[in-house]
Design brief:
The chain is α/β, with parallel strands linked by helices. The chain has a single domain, classed as Rossmann fold (3-Layer(aba) Sandwich), CATH 3.40.50. The chain contains seven helices and ten strands. Helix 3 runs parallel beside helix 5. The structure holds adenosine-5'-triphosphate (ATP) and magnesium ion (MG). The site of adenosine-5'-triphosphate has 12 residues, from strand 1, strand 2 and helix 1.
Length: 222
Protein backbone atom coordinates (compact mmCIF):
# COMPACT_ATOMS: atom_id res chain seq x y z
CA UNK A 1 0.00 0.00 0.00
CA UNK A 2 1.20 3.51 -0.65
CA UNK A 3 2.20 5.81 2.21
CA UNK A 4 0.90 8.76 0.21
CA UNK A 5 -1.21 8.91 -2.90
CA UNK A 6 -2.51 12.03 -4.54
CA UNK A 7 -5.01 11.81 -7.34
CA UNK A 8 -5.50 14.69 -9.82
CA UNK A 9 -4.81 17.27 -7.16
CA UNK A 10 -5.05 20.97 -7.98
CA UNK A 11 -4.58 24.03 -5.80
CA UNK A 12 -5.78 27.40 -7.03
CA UNK A 13 -4.98 30.70 -5.38
CA UNK A 14 -7.22 33.66 -6.10
CA UNK A 15 -5.39 36.99 -6.20
CA UNK A 16 -8.17 39.47 -6.93
CA UNK A 17 -9.37 38.71 -10.44
CA UNK A 18 -6.37 36.53 -11.21
CA UNK A 19 -6.33 32.80 -10.41
CA UNK A 20 -2.93 31.16 -9.99
CA UNK A 21 -2.82 27.39 -10.50
CA UNK A 22 0.00 26.42 -8.12
CA UNK A 23 -0.61 22.66 -8.53
CA UNK A 24 -2.35 21.44 -11.66
CA UNK A 25 -4.12 18.04 -11.73
CA UNK A 26 -1.09 16.28 -10.32
CA UNK A 27 -1.08 12.58 -9.43
CA UNK A 28 1.73 10.70 -7.67
CA UNK A 29 2.38 7.97 -5.13
CA UNK A 30 5.01 7.34 -2.46
CA UNK A 31 5.78 3.89 -1.09
CA UNK A 32 7.37 2.79 2.18
CA UNK A 33 11.12 3.40 2.07
CA UNK A 34 11.02 5.88 -0.82
CA UNK A 35 13.66 8.62 -0.81
CA UNK A 36 12.26 11.04 -3.34
CA UNK A 37 12.79 14.64 -4.28
CA UNK A 38 10.43 17.14 -5.87
CA UNK A 39 12.62 19.18 -8.20
CA UNK A 40 11.54 22.27 -10.05
CA UNK A 41 12.26 25.97 -10.49
CA UNK A 42 11.11 28.68 -8.09
CA UNK A 43 7.33 29.06 -8.21
CA UNK A 44 6.76 25.60 -9.74
CA UNK A 45 4.59 24.49 -6.81
CA UNK A 46 6.98 22.46 -4.60
CA UNK A 47 6.01 24.02 -1.25
CA UNK A 48 2.32 23.98 -2.15
CA UNK A 49 2.55 20.28 -3.03
CA UNK A 50 4.34 19.37 0.23
CA UNK A 51 1.73 21.30 2.23
CA UNK A 52 -1.06 19.45 0.45
CA UNK A 53 0.58 16.06 1.00
CA UNK A 54 1.16 16.82 4.69
CA UNK A 55 -2.40 17.99 5.29
CA UNK A 56 -1.32 21.55 6.10
CA UNK A 57 -3.41 22.76 3.16
CA UNK A 58 -6.44 21.35 1.36
CA UNK A 59 -6.65 20.75 -2.39
CA UNK A 60 -9.06 22.82 -4.49
CA UNK A 61 -9.71 19.66 -6.51
CA UNK A 62 -8.66 16.02 -6.31
CA UNK A 63 -7.90 13.70 -3.42
CA UNK A 64 -5.05 13.03 -0.99
CA UNK A 65 -4.70 9.61 0.67
CA UNK A 66 -2.40 8.90 3.62
CA UNK A 67 -1.90 5.17 4.26
CA UNK A 68 -4.81 4.56 1.92
CA UNK A 69 -7.17 6.81 3.88
CA UNK A 70 -8.71 9.82 2.12
CA UNK A 71 -8.10 13.07 4.00
CA UNK A 72 -10.84 14.97 2.18
CA UNK A 73 -13.56 14.79 4.79
CA UNK A 74 -11.39 14.99 7.87
CA UNK A 75 -11.87 17.83 10.33
CA UNK A 76 -8.97 20.13 11.28
CA UNK A 77 -8.73 18.19 14.52
CA UNK A 78 -8.53 14.81 12.76
CA UNK A 79 -5.95 16.17 10.31
CA UNK A 80 -3.77 17.44 13.11
CA UNK A 81 -3.97 14.02 14.83
CA UNK A 82 -2.92 12.38 11.56
CA UNK A 83 0.04 14.73 11.14
CA UNK A 84 1.14 14.20 14.72
CA UNK A 85 1.00 10.41 14.45
CA UNK A 86 2.47 9.84 11.04
CA UNK A 87 4.32 12.82 9.60
CA UNK A 88 7.45 14.79 10.50
CA UNK A 89 7.97 18.19 8.89
CA UNK A 90 11.25 19.95 8.28
CA UNK A 91 10.80 23.49 7.02
CA UNK A 92 13.35 25.69 5.36
CA UNK A 93 13.24 28.19 8.22
CA UNK A 94 13.72 25.44 10.89
CA UNK A 95 10.82 26.81 12.99
CA UNK A 96 12.67 26.29 16.27
CA UNK A 97 11.26 28.24 19.19
CA UNK A 98 13.90 30.84 20.09
CA UNK A 99 13.04 30.97 23.81
CA UNK A 100 13.49 27.22 24.36
CA UNK A 101 16.73 25.22 24.54
CA UNK A 102 17.53 22.46 22.05
CA UNK A 103 16.29 19.89 24.58
CA UNK A 104 13.06 21.81 25.24
CA UNK A 105 12.35 22.32 21.55
CA UNK A 106 12.34 18.55 21.10
CA UNK A 107 10.54 17.87 24.39
CA UNK A 108 7.68 20.09 23.28
CA UNK A 109 6.67 17.48 20.69
CA UNK A 110 6.57 14.73 23.35
CA UNK A 111 4.48 16.98 25.60
CA UNK A 112 2.04 17.69 22.78
CA UNK A 113 1.80 13.95 22.18
CA UNK A 114 1.06 13.27 25.82
CA UNK A 115 4.10 10.97 26.27
CA UNK A 116 4.81 10.31 29.96
CA UNK A 117 7.35 12.78 31.35
CA UNK A 118 9.60 10.04 32.77
CA UNK A 119 10.30 8.73 29.25
CA UNK A 120 11.35 12.10 27.83
CA UNK A 121 14.98 12.23 28.87
CA UNK A 122 16.01 8.87 27.40
CA UNK A 123 14.14 9.42 24.16
CA UNK A 124 15.53 12.91 23.67
CA UNK A 125 19.14 11.97 24.45
CA UNK A 126 18.90 8.98 22.11
CA UNK A 127 17.86 11.15 19.20
CA UNK A 128 20.39 13.87 20.11
CA UNK A 129 23.17 11.26 20.11
CA UNK A 130 22.04 9.97 16.74
CA UNK A 131 22.44 13.48 15.33
CA UNK A 132 25.65 14.24 17.22
CA UNK A 133 23.94 17.02 19.16
CA UNK A 134 24.18 15.70 22.73
CA UNK A 135 26.72 18.34 23.81
CA UNK A 136 24.46 21.12 22.57
CA UNK A 137 21.28 20.13 24.45
CA UNK A 138 21.30 23.18 26.75
CA UNK A 139 21.98 25.77 24.02
CA UNK A 140 19.44 28.21 22.65
CA UNK A 141 18.80 28.09 18.87
CA UNK A 142 20.49 31.49 18.40
CA UNK A 143 23.71 29.98 19.81
CA UNK A 144 23.88 27.34 17.06
CA UNK A 145 25.17 27.38 13.48
CA UNK A 146 22.70 26.99 10.61
CA UNK A 147 23.69 23.33 10.16
CA UNK A 148 23.26 22.61 13.87
CA UNK A 149 19.84 24.29 13.90
CA UNK A 150 18.84 22.23 10.89
CA UNK A 151 19.92 19.05 12.73
CA UNK A 152 17.79 20.05 15.72
CA UNK A 153 14.86 20.52 13.33
CA UNK A 154 15.54 16.99 12.03
CA UNK A 155 15.70 15.63 15.59
CA UNK A 156 12.38 17.27 16.33
CA UNK A 157 10.82 15.83 13.18
CA UNK A 158 12.06 12.34 14.13
CA UNK A 159 11.22 12.22 17.83
CA UNK A 160 7.72 10.84 17.28
CA UNK A 161 9.11 8.16 14.90
CA UNK A 162 7.00 9.23 11.91
CA UNK A 163 6.71 6.95 8.90
CA UNK A 164 6.89 9.92 6.53
CA UNK A 165 9.18 12.93 6.63
CA UNK A 166 8.42 15.93 4.44
CA UNK A 167 11.27 18.42 4.05
CA UNK A 168 10.97 21.67 2.15
CA UNK A 169 14.40 22.63 0.76
CA UNK A 170 16.18 21.16 3.79
CA UNK A 171 19.65 22.22 2.61
CA UNK A 172 18.76 25.69 1.34
CA UNK A 173 20.47 27.62 4.15
CA UNK A 174 23.42 25.28 4.61
CA UNK A 175 27.01 25.34 3.37
CA UNK A 176 27.88 22.38 1.16
CA UNK A 177 29.59 20.40 3.94
CA UNK A 178 26.59 20.70 6.30
CA UNK A 179 24.23 19.95 3.42
CA UNK A 180 26.15 16.77 2.62
CA UNK A 181 26.12 15.66 6.25
CA UNK A 182 22.39 16.26 6.52
CA UNK A 183 21.71 14.24 3.38
CA UNK A 184 23.92 11.39 4.65
CA UNK A 185 21.98 11.36 7.89
CA UNK A 186 18.63 11.22 6.13
CA UNK A 187 19.90 8.45 3.86
CA UNK A 188 20.98 6.47 6.91
CA UNK A 189 17.55 6.84 8.53
CA UNK A 190 15.97 5.81 5.29
CA UNK A 191 18.18 2.71 4.99
CA UNK A 192 18.14 1.63 8.62
CA UNK A 193 14.58 2.51 9.65
CA UNK A 194 12.79 2.58 6.31
CA UNK A 195 11.47 6.06 7.02
CA UNK A 196 9.89 7.42 3.83
CA UNK A 197 11.30 10.79 2.77
CA UNK A 198 10.01 13.42 0.39
CA UNK A 199 12.15 16.52 -0.10
CA UNK A 200 11.82 19.52 -2.29
CA UNK A 201 14.96 21.02 -3.70
CA UNK A 202 16.66 22.78 -6.52
CA UNK A 203 20.08 21.80 -5.20
CA UNK A 204 21.69 19.35 -7.64
CA UNK A 205 23.57 17.57 -4.82
CA UNK A 206 20.26 16.78 -3.07
CA UNK A 207 18.61 15.76 -6.34
CA UNK A 208 21.53 13.42 -7.15
CA UNK A 209 21.13 11.62 -3.81
CA UNK A 210 17.42 10.90 -4.22
CA UNK A 211 16.31 7.44 -5.32
CA UNK A 212 13.52 9.01 -7.33
CA UNK A 213 13.20 12.50 -8.84
CA UNK A 214 9.74 14.00 -9.34
CA UNK A 215 10.19 16.94 -11.71
CA UNK A 216 7.54 19.62 -11.75
CA UNK A 217 7.01 22.83 -13.68
CA UNK A 218 4.00 25.14 -13.46
CA UNK A 219 2.40 22.72 -10.99
CA UNK A 220 2.56 19.75 -13.38
CA UNK A 221 4.82 16.73 -13.70
CA UNK A 222 7.32 17.19 -16.51
N1 LIG B 1 -0.64 32.02 -0.51
C1 LIG B 1 -0.51 32.23 -1.82
N2 LIG B 1 -1.31 33.10 -2.47
C2 LIG B 1 -1.21 33.28 -3.79
N3 LIG B 1 -0.33 32.65 -4.59
C3 LIG B 1 0.50 31.78 -4.00
C4 LIG B 1 0.48 31.52 -2.58
N4 LIG B 1 1.42 30.61 -2.29
C5 LIG B 1 2.01 30.30 -3.46
N5 LIG B 1 1.48 30.99 -4.48
C6 LIG B 1 1.85 30.90 -5.90
O1 LIG B 1 1.78 29.53 -6.29
C7 LIG B 1 2.86 29.18 -7.13
C8 LIG B 1 3.66 28.03 -6.49
O2 LIG B 1 4.29 28.51 -5.31
P1 LIG B 1 5.19 27.57 -4.38
O3 LIG B 1 5.53 28.35 -3.18
O4 LIG B 1 4.50 26.28 -4.20
O5 LIG B 1 6.47 27.36 -5.32
P2 LIG B 1 7.89 26.68 -5.00
O6 LIG B 1 8.16 25.71 -6.10
O7 LIG B 1 7.91 26.20 -3.60
O8 LIG B 1 8.91 27.92 -5.16
P3 LIG B 1 10.32 28.20 -4.42
O9 LIG B 1 11.33 27.28 -5.06
O10 LIG B 1 10.59 29.64 -4.74
O11 LIG B 1 10.13 27.96 -2.95
C9 LIG B 1 3.66 30.47 -7.34
O12 LIG B 1 3.23 31.05 -8.54
C10 LIG B 1 3.28 31.31 -6.14
O13 LIG B 1 3.39 32.68 -6.45
MG1 LIG C 1 9.03 26.69 -1.90
Amino acid sequence: MSVVKIDKVSRFYKNGLLTVTAVDQLSMELHKGDFSVIAGPSGSGKTTLLNLIGGLDKPSEGQVFIDGEPTQNKSEHQLSDLRREKIGFIFQAYNLLPVLTVYENIQLILQIQGIAEKLHKDKIFAILAELDLQDLHARMPAELSGGQQQRVAVARALINEPKLILADEPTANLDSESANKLMDLMQRLNNEKEVTFLFSSHDQMVIDKAKKVIRIRDGKLC
